[in-house]
Write a structure and sequence with these properties.
The structure holds two protein chains of two kinds. By secondary structure, chain A is mostly helical. Chain A has 16 helices and no strands. The radius of gyration of chain A is 17 Å and the shape is globular. The two termini of chain A are 31 Å apart. By secondary structure, chain B is of the alpha+beta class. In chain B, strands 19-20-22-23-24-25-26-27 form an eight-stranded mixed barrel, surrounded by five helices. A six-stranded antiparallel beta sheet of chain B has the order 2-1-6-5-4-3. The termini of chain B are far apart. The interface between A and B is large, with 55 and 41 residues.
């Protein structure tokens, strides 16, 4: 089956028109000239999103449990990219669990925690890497909606990570993170983020996300057939470093899960 | 004005695009099977690919272009919108070039214009290289800097730490990044750091002192300096540097400890005691008891075994006190042999338990230079009450209670009661009034005649000056009361000088007003404390000179007991006074314990028979008075009987050979004007009698 990417993305655009505040948040956080005060003002117009950002900023994940009292400070603490990601989740309608693949948010939160923990090693800021991980699965949600049965089969027959990307590309002409990249490109996300998603299959720009997928697979699926970290990370990580990182990620996952309420 | 047809404009644009070697353009058509093939290329494209335009015409695109992962090219051809995709180009010489390809659909739905830009132009490469070099320099600087540094990107989550921080805390960077570092912050300082981080995230620069715990859980004291860090489009974080001030702090702590702790016993000094008590009292309703401990007879140890032994005893006592109190209680050395214990308790019984324990451990034997002694102490206990506003109040009250304990027989515990406190308070006010009375010369003198019955007529040989204080509200305050207060509160010298000066001036005046009727000299009482005052002799000399008197016109009286407190020093001072010509009388003789040997060596002019021995004469108890009179005669010194109140006493003393007397039988002490009148009335013209 060749997926009509444009159809899928058009559907997404229609969804986003129903969440104008979320769309404005995404636009504001994309602007270089916008400050935390501007973003907080826009965010304040959507109580649900504002509450989610406040909850996140006050979570143990950021080490400031219960101390962040203003929305502006909350935006400062979690970072623009994280606010944008939270808004994008709403924009894409994927905060509703009804039409999502199994374990969608479990995987997303693991990818976010992995991104946040691994980012600095890949010369990415933790905030960027966290956002990247949190949104990477958007494409998977879209594939699931476009082809529920087929995608369910694909999920059942492939392991998370490189193996699945290949199967997705074979079946749909594009793998799920790449599809996410196309959606984010349409919403004018930073080029670096789009490139990282497009290059998830191969290439140095995709190394961080690829490694995050591998870490997530190892944490969630004990039977996962490991791909060596040295290979997926383009030499940025070694197997020796894995145990400590996995432990840190597991702890971050718990905090993020509680904070995001996902 | 000539105008061009639209077709000419299109042709001009097309020509420009076709000939531009700086921009690579391709027009691609999708076949019925969805395979893209090249329909047109410009000069820039042929240069980039290293192939002639004619060679490219009709060629499948995948022969020259592929996705980095080798997947289908199909994803970039969208009919509704342009796309930008990373691609790899293969040139004629087999080189792979990473490109960014923007595919713009043409209106017909079958053609796309591809603009191919090398992913990184030379300028981009140069800028990137420069940025990388900057970043690398910064990274090396930060990582190799000896200053421990941490950098956050989100809240308290660290993205980077440097080697110096890892060394400081003795852990690897892995354990510190994220929120791992918070586990190494001293738990008591975490809240302050978090509050500071919030200020910093709001754009402020901040400094604070914070403690960290290293991998061995040793405390490291640091000065932290925070700077906000703004990353455009990302948000705010911070950079913090740490200065390890543990050694400096330890040194300061040592200095502070030395300043606030007693070097002998190691116990806190008064200043710490005050801090501790005030801090405890800052919280209303917190139970607090203070105990004042004074060692009984410590001076005996010092005098008999030496100061080294005395010091050893104090050290031992300090150890015992610390052992006796409970955790959280404070033992301070108040000074000398005085200690104060501050206990966190709100019950009198609880405080007394502690005090009992202290007395018990205190009395265990101590071996000092082979001598076994059992220390004893008196303890005054006070419980914090509503009247206690500060440490001053509380410690003052336990001091009062300790004095009560001492006065009731030492070696005991006294809890301050209200009457004792009000008495002590009253005394404090009286002391203050006395100080004022001395300054304002409100202390007046009465004079009691001392008369010799030697010849045919009695002779007024002297007048004893007796200090009087009429308090504005309390009326007359007994002399022994205010003299004792003056002695206890360091006002003896001022009081004595006032009395000496007033008495001497009075004599000078009498000599003018009364002429031969004036007494030959004036007697002034000295306090025991003045027997160790090196300035006494000088003061006496100066006063006599100022008043124009001869030294023999002054007689100083010192009690026998005062004399015996420090006989050697007293002897020295009295000898100097005698050498100068001043008369010296020993007051209340017979009540003390003078050694005959001392008495013989002392340069005494008179003994004064104590009034108690005179009073018992009529009861037939004459032995002591007789003995004193005989002793004086045998030593060749004068004798004066005090307190002569009846003619019978007068007669008996005369019989014993005591010719000089004073007392109510002769005259009560008189205020100055009355005394002058008395002189005139009682001793009309006795020429030459009074020299």
């Amino acid at each position: 089956m060749v997926l009509d990417v444009d159809d899928v993305l058009d559907g997404l655009d229609q969804l986003s028109s129903q969440r104008p505040v979320a769309a404005r948040i995404v636009a504001t956080s994309n602007s270089d000239s916008a400050g935390a005060a501007d973003l907080a003002t826009v965010l304040g117009a959507d109580m649900a999103l504002a509450a989610r950002v406040m909850k996140l900023a006050n979570s143990a994940y950021f080490g400031l449990s219960g101390r962040v009292t203003s929305l502006q400070l909350a935006v400062t603490v979690v970072g623009f990219n994280t606010v944008r990601s939270v808004a994008t989740v709403a924009l894409a309608g994927i905060d509703d669990a009804r039409h999502l693949p199994d374990d969608f948010w479990t995987i997303s939160v693991h990818l976010a925690a992995s991104g946040g923990a691994l980012g600095p090693r890949f010369q990415a800021t933790a905030a960027d890497a966290l956002s990247l991980g949190l949104l990477a699965q958007l494409g998977a949600a879209l594939l699931h909606q476009a082809d529920p049965d087929g995608y369910a089969d694909l999920l059942a027959s492939t392991g998370l990570g490189v193996e699945r990307f290949r199967a997705e590309a074979d079946r749909y002409g594009i793998c799920s993170p790449q599809l996410t990249g196309e959606a984010l490109a349409r919403w004018h996300f930073p080029a670096a983020m789009v490139d990282a998603l497009r290059a998830v299959h191969a290439g140095s720009e995709g190394a961080l996300l690829r490694t995050a997928y591998e870490m997530t697979a190892r944490l969630l699926h004990p039977q996962h057939r490991k791909v060596t970290l040295d290979r997926v990370s383009d030499g940025r990580m070694t197997e020796a470093q894995a145990p400590a990182r996995l432990m840190a990620i597991r702890s971050d996952v718990l905090q993020l899960q509680a904070a995001l309420g996902l | 004005m000539p105008t061009s047809a639209p077709g000419d404009v299109v042709a001009a644009v097309l020509h420009g695009a076709a000939a531009d070697p700086g921009t690579a353009l391709l027009v691609v058509e999708l076949s019925a099977l969805g395979e893209p093939a090249v329909r047109w290329s410009n000069a820039g494209a042929t240069e980039l690919l290293g192939r002639a335009g004619s060679d490219l015409q009709g060629e499948p695109l995948h022969g020259y272009m592929s996705t980095p992962e080798g997947g289908s090219l199909f994803a970039m051809f969208r009919r509704e919108r342009p796309t930008t995709t990373l691609m790899t180009l293969r040139t004629a010489v087999g080189e792979s070039v990473a490109c960014r390809v923007r595919a713009t659909p043409a209106p017909g739905g079958r053609l796309w214009a591809l603009r191919v830009d090398p992913a990184q132009s030379e300028l981009e490469l140069a800028l990137r290289a420069s940025a990388d070099a900057h970043e690398q320099r910064f990274k090396v600087l930060a990582e190799r800097s000896p200053v421990p540094t941490l950098m956050s990107e989100q809240g308290m989550r660290l993205g980077h730490v440097n080697d110096a921080l890892c060394t400081l805390l003795g852990v690897t960077a892995d354990k510190l990044i994220g929120i791992g570092w918070m586990a190494y912050v001293h738990p008591e300082d975490l809240e302050r750091i978090a509050a500071t981080v919030l200020d910093v995230l709001a754009g402020e620069e901040r400094e604070l002192e914070a403690r960290f715990l290293d991998s061995a859980r040793e405390v490291r004291h640091t000065d932290m300096r925070f700077t906000p860090l703004r990353t455009p489009g990302v948000g705010d974080g911070f950079v913090a540097t740490l200065e390890d001030v543990t050694e400096r702090r330890a040194f300061e702590d040592r200095l502070n400890h030395q300043a606030t702790h007693d070097s002998l016993t190691g116990l806190p000094r008064r200043s710490r005691l005050w801090e501790h008590v005030n801090a405890a009292m800052a919280t209303p309703d917190v139970g607090l008891a203070c105990m004042f401990l004074d060692l009984d007879n410590f001076k005996v140890v010092n005098d008999s075994l030496g100061h080294t032994a005395g010091d050893a005893l104090l050290v031992e006592i300090a150890h015992r006190l610390i052992r006796a109190v409970r955790p959280g209680d404070l033992v301070a050395r108040f000074g000398g042999d005085e200690f104060v214990v501050a206990c966190a308790t709100s019950s009198v019984d609880g405080a007394i338990d502690v005090a009992n324990r202290i007395l018990r451990v205190l009395s265990e034997p101590v071996d000092l230079n082979g001598v076994e002694i059992r220390p004893r102490g008196s303890i005054g206990v006070v419980l914090r009450g509503p009247d206690h506003q500060s440490a001053d109040d509380l410690i003052r009250d336990c001091d009062i209670a300790m004095y009560q304990a001492k006065s009731r027989g030492k070696g005991r515990i006294m809890v301050l009661d209200e009457s004792a406190r009000s008495a002590a308070h009253d005394t404090l006010i009286l002391v203050s009034d006395l100080r004022q009375a001395i300054e304002e010369r409100q202390i007046t003198l009465d004079y009691q005649p001392i008369v010799a019955y030697d010849g045919q007529r009695p002779q007024l040989v002297s007048a004893e000056a007796l200090a009087r204080w009429r308090h504005p509200r309390r009326g007359s305050v007994p002399a022994d009361t205010f003299v004792r207060l003056a002695e206890e509160h360091g006002m003896v010298r001022e009081l004595s000088e006032l009395v000496l000066e007033t008495a001497c001036r009075a004599l000078t005046e009498w000599r003018v007003r009364l002429g031969p009727l004036a007494p030959a000299r004036v007697n002034v009482n000295l306090s025991a404390l003045q027997m160790s005052d090196n300035l006494l002799v000088q003061t006496v000399q100066q006063t006599l000179r100022r008043c124009g008197l001869h030294p023999e016109q002054l007689c100083v009286e010192i009690t026998e007991s005062a004399l015996m407190m420090d006989p050697d020093t007293a002897a020295t001072i009295l000898r100097e006074l005698r050498e100068h010509g001043v008369q010296v009388a020993i007051d209340d003789f017979g009540t003390g314990y003078s050694s005959m040997a001392y008495l013989q060596r002392l340069p005494v002019s008179y003994l004064k028979v104590d009034r108690s021995f005179v009073a018992e004469l009529e009861d037939g108890r004459t032995a002591v008075a007789q003995a004193v009179v005989s002793l004086a005669h045998n030593l060749g010194i004068g004798v004066v009987a005090e307190g002569v109140e009846t003619t019978a006493q007068h007669a008996m003393l005369t019989e014993m050979g005591c010719r000089v007397m004073q007392g109510f039988a002769i005259s009560a002490p008189l205020p100055e004007p009355s005394f002058v009148e008395w002189c005139r009335d009682s001793f009309p013209a006795a020429p030459g009698a009074l020299r």
